[in-house]
Structure formats: structure tokens, C-alpha cells
Amino acid sequence: MVKRAQDWIEVRPEGLYVRAGGFFVDPLRPVAKAVITHGHSDHARGGHAEVIATPETLAIMGLRLGEAAGGTRRPLPLGQRVRIGEVEVWLAPAGHVLGSAQVVLEYAGMRVVVSGDYKRASDPTCQAFEVVVCDVFVTEATFGLPVFRHPPAMAEIDRLLRSVRIFPERCHLIGAYSLGKAQRVIALLRAAGWERPIHLHGALQAMCALYGQYGVALGPLCPATLGSRETRSDLAGEIVIAPPGAIADRWARRLPDPVICLASGWMRVKQRARQRGVELPLVISDHADWDELLRTLDDVRAPEVWVTHGREEALVHAATQKGIRAQALALLGYEEEEG
Ligand SMILES: [Zn+2]
Ligand SMILES: [Zn+2]
């Protein structure tokens, strides 16, 4: 008799294994069958024989991994049910990045939701998080400390645009993770009325084009390519977006007196901003903050919660105080994301 989720879901060295279905969710190593929540590289690794994910996530994996994306790719649109082994599986939107999904697992009268990464704040570039009431909720805890409270993203964009107005002779260079954050920043700028072309570092162009193919309107974008030794004085007063790793590059120094910005939930920690040479930190995150994590535990009404991926201890403690059976799920190998 199956009484507990632990009887059919377990942690193996490869990752979270759904034994009753014979598949892994976001495995860390190549496996026979993987269900993938979203395209970030610590979740969507290459080399699996069979990959099940939303069509958007499969496209993102194809773009990032090429041939290594996996053998058989089975698209599973949001809300559509499929039976894998003895388990009913469907995907619900997670509100994290384009195509991101929570994996809903139903077996033996029990429902387990593996949320992957998620956020509750609105994001014009992906479908909003859907609350799925369940028996066991597996949650991330990237920002699982009370100090992490993200301000409204639009307020951060307003600060950015104020700086652009104050320094018309300077270029604003925003570091933003290539999948999700960059496109969200662009969409927010458009919503705030910034109509001028936005200039992109080469590493962001293909992903922005893919978002466009999936109907996410980003407005006029153009490449911020810099020939060797060339200075782009024409970029004064303009906005340039680059991966976080590029904002301290030699490349960046050829922009006209750039104001270095970084869009990340980690920018809440002033020391981190200072360490990375960020003049204008923008606290914009694609992960739930502390309040969103707690609100989500209330919303999904799960009597049991497994916490992974970040600062498990504080969230386990807070959940326990709510009367929830909570435990840290020791899933090794997840890296800290750009947040
Ligand atoms: Zn992610
Ligand atoms: Zn993650």
C-alpha cells in the first residue's frame, strides 16, 4: 500500500526520481527519461535519451544545447495530461521564464507538485504561476531568507529611466541573465514607455529572437557590436543589455562612460553590488522572494513540503511553524542562479 510520496518518489544521485513513472525531474546527469521544468542550465542539462517539457522549453534547450539537447523530445503543452509509467503527469505555468512549468504528478490518489523555479510577481514575458493545490509541494528556496524582499520590478525600471534622463551623455549597460531576465527587462522598459531601440550584446540576440517567435513582443532591438578598438559614441544616452559576465569586460569599456547596472535579486545585498562594480543595482528577480514563498505555501495548502535549491533551513523552519511537515531535499548540484 502506498501511503506516502516517499514510497514512489526518491532522491537518487542523478536527481529527483519518480519511481512509479520511471523518470527523473530536472536530473543532474544524463538519464533515460527526464521531465524538465525550464530551460536554465542547472535544470535542463543535455544528454538525456528522452526529454519531456513544454514546447518552449524544448526550443530553448535546442538553442542552448544543440545536438546535446537529447534524443527524443516530447513536447507537453501546459495543462495537457500524459501517463508515464503509472503516473499521470501534467504541467502548470511557473511564472519563472518563457515555457517554465511546475510538474504535477498524480499517483495512488496523491498529488505531488514539483515547482522548479517560480515567482508570483507579474512578468509580461511568461505565463503567470498557477496555484495547484496538492499533497506534497516541492519548492525552491533561492531567496529563502526574510531579508530577501523584492520591490516591484517597475519601480526599479523607473529608477533606471531616471538615471538615463540625468546622464544623457552616458550609456546605461545592464547586466541581465540571457534566459528570462534580459527579455523581462526589455518588456518592462517597453511597458514604461521606452520606445528607442535597445542594444544587445551578441550573446543575447538568439534568445531574444526565440522569445519573439513565441509571441513575446520586445520592440526594436539592435546589436551592440563593437569592432576591435572602436568606441560606440553613438550609444550615449542609450540602453545596452549584456550577460552579467560581460559587464566588467573590456568590451564594456568601449561604451561611452557606461553606468553599470545589474538586474538580479542578489542586488538586494549591497556588498554583492559593490563586489561586481555595479553603480546602479536593480533588484529584479525571476525567483519568489521570502513573502512569495510563504504565500505560495499557504496557497497550495500542502500538508507536506520539500525544500530544495537554496536556503532550505529558514523556509523549513517557517513552514514547520505553519504546521506543515517540511524537510530539506538534499539535491546536490544545483548552482546559484543569477536570480
Ligand atoms: Zn531557473
Ligand atoms: Zn534553478
TrEMBL record:
Residues 28-161 form the Metallo-beta-lactamase domain. GO terms for molecular function: RNA endonuclease activity. This is Putative mRNA 3-end processing factor. NCBIfam families: Xnuc_lig_assoc (TIGR04122). It comes from the Bacteria. It holds the Pfam family Lactamase_B.
